[in-house]
Write a structure and sequence with these properties.
Layout lengths: L4 E10 L2 E11 L4 E5 L6 H8 L7 E6 L2 E3 L4 H6 L2 E4 L11 H5 L6 E2 L2 E2 L1 H14 L15 H13 L5 E5 L7 H16 L3 E5 L3 H7 L2 E6 L2 E7 L5 H9 L17 E10 L3 E9 L3 E6 L5 H9 L6 E6 L2 E3 L4 H6 L2 E4 L3 H5 L6 H6 L7 E2 L2 E2 L1 H15 L15 H13 L5 E5 L7 H16 L3 E5 L3 H7 L2 E6 L2 E7 L5 H8 L7
Parallel strand pairs: 3-10, 3-11, 6-9, 9-10, 15-22, 15-23, 18-21, 21-22
Antiparallel strand pairs: 1-2, 1-4, 4-5, 7-8, 11-12, 13-14, 13-16, 16-17, 19-20, 23-24
């Protein structure tokens, strides 16, 4: 049977970088072909070549056995290639139907045919068994629903090949199940699916074939059946990572962060929790349960309507991030690109941003002190490359995340809130970040960890609070925590005895 896609001996170089070297990829109709690799391994470059964003230096692309030159993204779509990127490419102010049919809107004499538009979008949603109103404004949907709309938009063009790039990076394990149903439905429809993810368990659950890339080279392609996560990690990083989420046992001290009855109308209600020195406390729950909203209120990004926050026994009335920082709280946000960094600024400028007032006198910044601080943080956190004048947006996702953490560690916080600290980073960077978290806990920092990746929460937390619809539904000790127990609490069901 002729493959829907063959990429043969694909090579691509940029100034000073060999991004891809003789990479092969075969995707067949009705098959999920997963691609894994660390950030910088070449996954995105390979897919951008398939999408027509880049042209390969060498190699050939065959569609249904015919050698083809893809001149650009529009040409790729015309040839039946659908791309679903990690960053959603939707218009929040348009309806669901308008987003799904964007680029293929039914019209007559220049006027949109509203009935045909809605019916066409509804047919696509029905194919996915998705209970989403096609007339709803996209911005009113949850992240998981928006992700489904993004895939539906690609599916509406009746592609032969669909590329899904980190489709579950913003979803909890529970929310991801709806997306997996859609992937399996598309596979049953005979679509060739290329699936890129750092979540190795879902790669093994969904994948038929797995290709591992490392440093721009194809390390191995083999059936997913019989492959283990440990083998994939070894192939991806060139070494064994026996524990992706290492847990360091450290002495637990007195309560540092105490939150009582915290309420923000419409977001969460009567939230009480505490974190002690050296303790890592997980905050779990489904997407939309209010985890990020609680973190933002504690830090001062959003104003609470009721409740109290204390740090080391002192009342905190943080109404701005500056006040939260002054109280000894640091917050690493879930969206590093939007809220965590200034992408075009240097590593040095990003790290020094929260502490500029401490780096000089009378409004003048001491540049030597600023450079010294940046070098210390870069060395401590292992940012690579360790060039403090380098723009942050030139770094891999894992190293960008290290810069965000470094920025807030420069404030010497008593409480560190980490919101999705390993989202979208590869397994090597994930292990590095967890080593950093363990070292901070060992130094006595109180850590509140939010993650949609349940194995991460279970592996590193000393205790876990679970949120359901804006309320704490359970507090679970480490010894009693497992996936079933947390998910019962997250979905509002009684925790098994």
């Amino acid at each position: 049977m002729t493959a829907a896609l063959e990429m043969r001996n694909i090579s691509k170089s940029f100034p000073g970088i060999r991004a891809l070297a003789d990479v092969d990829l075969v995707a067949r109709a009705g098959e999920v072909h997963a691609i894994v690799g660390e950030n910088g391994a070449g996954k995105s470059t390979l897919m951008k070549i398939l999408a027509g964003v880049y042209q390969p230096d060498d190699g050939a692309i065959l569609l249904d056995g015919v050698e083809t030159r893809i001149s650009g993204p529009i040409d790729a779509r015309k040839r039946g290639i659908g791309m679903v990127y990690q960053e959603l490419n939707l218009v929040p102010d348009l309806t669901v139907a308008e987003n799904i049919m964007l680029g293929s809107t039914p019209s007559r004499l220049g006027f949109v045919q509203r009935k045909a538009l809605t019916e066409s979008a509804q047919a696509v949603l029905d194919a996915f068994d998705a209970r989403i109103d096609p007339g709803a404004i996209l911005g009113s949907l949850t992240v998981s629903q928006q992700q489904i709309v993004e895939i539906a938009k690609a599916y509406a063009l009746r592609p032969k090949i669909i590329v899904l790039d980190e489709p579950t990076s913003s979803l909890s394990e529970h929310e991801a199940q709806a997306l997996f149903h859609i992937v399996r439905r598309m596979r049953a429809d005979g679509i060739a699916i290329i699936y890129i993810s750092h979540r190795l368990r879902e790669v093994l659950d969904l994948g038929d074939q797995v290709t591992v890339l490392r440093d721009g080279q194809q390390i191995e392609t083999r059936p997913a059946e019989g492959l283990t996560a440990g083998e994939m990690i070894r192939l991806m990083v060139g070494r064994d990572l026996t524990d992706i989420f290492p847990k360091r046992e450290v002495p637990i001290g007195d309560t540092v962060l105490a939150v009582e009855g915290l309420t923000r109308q419409g977001a969460f209600e009567d939230v009480s929790l505490h974190v002690r020195a050296g303790e890592i406390v997980g905050l779990a729950g489904l997407v939309g349960a209010g985890r990020t909203e609680v973190a933002r209120a504690i830090f001062g990004l959003d104003r609470a309507n009721a409740g109290t926050v204390h740090v080391d026994g002192a009342a905190v009335h943080a109404r701005t991030p500056a006040q939260g920082t002054e109280a000894g709280i640091a917050y690493v946000p879930e969206d590093r690109k939007r809220d965590g960094i200034i992408p075009s600024a240097s590593i040095k400028d990003n790290i020094s941003l929260p502490v500029l007032s401490d780096l000089g006198r009378m409004g003048w910044i001491s540049r030597p002190r600023e450079r010294e601080l940046a070098r210390e943080q870069v060395a401590t956190l292992g940012v690579s490359p360790p060039v403090i004048e380098r723009a942050v947006d030139t770094l891999s996702g894992g190293n960008q995340q290290k810069v965000v953490i470094a920025k807030w560690l420069a404030t010497q916080p008593k409480v560190l809130i980490l919101d999705e600290p390993t989202r979208g980073v590869d397994v090597g960077a994930k292990a590095d970040i967890h080593e950093i978290i363990g070292a901070l806990a060992a130094a006595g920092t109180a850590i509140l960890l939010i993650s949609s990746e349940l194995p991460e929460v279970l592996a590193v937390s000393d205790r876990i609070y679970v949120l359901h619809e804006g309320r704490i539904s359970a507090e679970i000790a480490r010894a009693d925590a497992d996936e079933a127990t947390v998910m019962h609490a997250a979905t509002g069901e009684a925790v098994p005895a």
